[in-house]
Amino acid sequence: MLKKFILLFIIQLFIINPSISMEKETTFNKKLFDKAQSEGKVVIVSSWIKYCSSCASQMKVLNKAKNDGKLFDIKFDNIEYFSFDVTNKDIANLLNVKFQTTLLIFKNNNEIYRSLGETTEDLIYEALKKSI
User: Fold this and answer.
1) What is the DSSP letter of 19?
2) Contact indicator for 41, 78 with CB cutoff of 8 Å
3) 18-77 pLDDT per residue, tens
4) String of b and e for 102-112 (b: at least 16 CB within 10 Å)?
């Protein structure tokens, strides 16, 4: 019975909902963050935690925008995107982030947008479009 339960859990976790198992890595680096801001780039930062499906969904939308190289009719070359594990307290404290799936947008060295739990492509794209 226990083996059956574990097997069903694994199937649910990795096959039925593969976004949970999406590879996540911390790409946030304070020096690169500061450099991007000093170059006048729009800086996007998202937080995640292991096995968080909404984090994976949000990152998927942001990575799609970055990998496509554009957002609507706007090129993504003046945007820098970083992500970090919210359990990294140094980064979380620096950015005043307390929860996973927090999305931050910075422009001209100021935070201009913050959301929590947003995973809808249209709403994320609209926030990015407004910040450019």
Assistant:
1) G
2) yes
3) 444 446 788 999 999 999 999 999 999 999 998 898 999 898 888 887 777 666 565 667
4) bbbbbbeeeee
Q: Give yes or no for a contact between 65 and 71, defined as CB atoms under 8 angstroms apart.
A: yes
Question: How far apart, in Å, are the Cα atoms of 19 and each of 7, 41, 101, 110?
Answer: 18, 29, 14, 31
55 and 100 Cβ atoms separated by less than 8 Å:
yes
- Select the CATH number that applies to the domain covering 23-131 from these four: 3.30.450.20, 3.90.1150.10, 3.30.565.10, 3.40.30.10: 3.40.30.10
- CA 68 from centroid of its chain's CA atoms: 16
Question: For residue 84, which of 102, 68, 70 has the smallest C-alpha distance?
Answer: 102
Q: DSSP 3-state assignment of 97?
A: coil
121-131 helix and 53-68 helix, angle to the nearest 10 degrees: 50
